[in-house]
Amino acid sequence: MSFPPSVLGRAADRDLGEPVRAFDGRAGLRRALLWAGLSVLAGLVLLATLAGSLAAGRAEPALVAAILTIGYLAAAPRVVEAIGGRPSELRARNAAVYLFTGGFVLESGRETTAYPWDELVSVTASGVRHAAQGRTRYRFLVGAVDGREIQLGDELPDVRELGERVSAEVTRRILPAQLARVRAGESVRMGPFTVDAEGVAKEGECVPWPAVGEVGADNGVVYVHSRGELRSLTAIAARMPNAVAFVQLCHRLAAGDREESRGH
């Protein structure tokens, strides 16, 4: 595990603790550029073969080259998508995240920025699968206290592991304050949900804590099911910051309500 001196220096300046792991998307960028170059070279060879065969009057080689060229042109868009050859995706791959015990450092292009855990306030996660048997492409949008938004996408290797670690650290810091606010009689707004001492509500419909059956997130949906699933409140996970914190908050409050009921 190699951390550049500039990254270690920036981490030391922000007191980020010990290095943990690097998530470097630039290796994927280099592979993408190599495959893009080979793909372009293959296309040029086919075109040159076709032109040469036509000029020499060789019908059969020209026909074969024409068929291969048509197949190449038909497959080119898929090849470009597979290697992430679109300019926006290639720029996104020019990044690396260096994880430390106290936060992370993001290198994007020529910019290096450190983010301590205490300066992060939200994580919004999404996962997209374009085919039934295809892999899920994860993206995490991380919000900082100063309004900055950091995108961690599939251009980074093992981005799901990184995003879940960031989400866990953010949740660990914001959950106690949210729990204290609710227990003090305040309400907490999380995405489309409102959580208070009575229960969890969305758009005027409330599930009281004694009636809460299951709270979780699955298949891109955050949900609250009442006992017997007579009522369900749902939201799209990709549009809901801190879904993990919301689920844990509901678990804690629902469990506390049941404990109080048994005590009486």
Q: How is this structure best described in words?
A:
This protein is an alpha+beta fold. It has six helices and 14 strands. It has helices spanning about 5-15, 25-55, 60-85, 85-95, 160-185, 245-264; strands at about 20-25, 95-100, 105-110, 110-115, 120-130, 135-145, 150, 190, 195, 200, 205-210, 210-220, 220-225, 230-235. Strands 1-2-3-4 form a four-stranded antiparallel sheet, sandwiched between helices. A four-stranded antiparallel sheet has the order 8-9-10-11. β2 and β3 form a beta hairpin. α2 packs antiparallel against α3. It is flat. The model is unreliable at about 30-35 and about 255-264 (pLDDT under 50).
For the structure shown, list the relevant keywords:
264 residues, alpha+beta, 4-stranded antiparallel β-sheet, 45% helix, disordered C terminus
So what's the overall shape?
A: flat
User: N- to C-terminal separation?
Assistant: 56 Å
SSE sequence, one letter per element: HEHHHEEEEEEHEEEEEEEH
Stretches where pLDDT is under 50 for at least 5 consecutive residues are 29-35, 257-264
**Biggest sheet details:** 4 strands, antiparallel
Mean pLDDT: 81
Spatially, the strands of the biggest sheet line up as 1-2-3-4
Structural class of the helices, strands and pairings? alpha+beta
What's the total count of β strands?
14
Proportion of helical residues: 40-55%
Strand content: 25-35%
Count of helical regions: 6
* Rg of Cα set: 26 Å
